[in-house]
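Database export, one record per block. Field names are fixed; values are copied verbatim from the stored entry.
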Amino acid sequence: MYLSLFLSSFLAATILPFSSEVFLAASIIKGMDNITALILASSGNIMGAVVNYYAGLFGGEIIIEKYFNTKKKELLKAFERVRKYGIFSLFFAWVPVLGDPLTMAAGILKINFFLFFAATSIGKIARYVFVIYFAVSFR
């Protein structure tokens, strides 16, 4: 169950179009420790965002479109968000559909990695704390 939570969170942040929140909530409802679940889900999801960042940094737009199935239109919107709001846009890297292009755009735009990592981590961890808070009520 631990590895599954980590992997589902990682893959949800990279290539698979599904929500890791459902898997996290199910793990909590089944009795997984809150802190352990938070660490596993957050670290997996943050690592997935880091993969996207480096795909953008080293892969560029062509590789992203080809291998990550991210459309040019989504990337252009993400560029605009990152340019307009700077690193603050990365607090919302957890948002479905918007998050992956944001993290890739941050890499392409060569946003400072430590700022990227901090902003992305804060947003993703806060989202999982919220999910855990509500999942606990269903135990």
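Remark 1: The chain has a mean pLDDT of 90.
Remark 2: DSSP finds six helices and no strands in the chain.
End of record.
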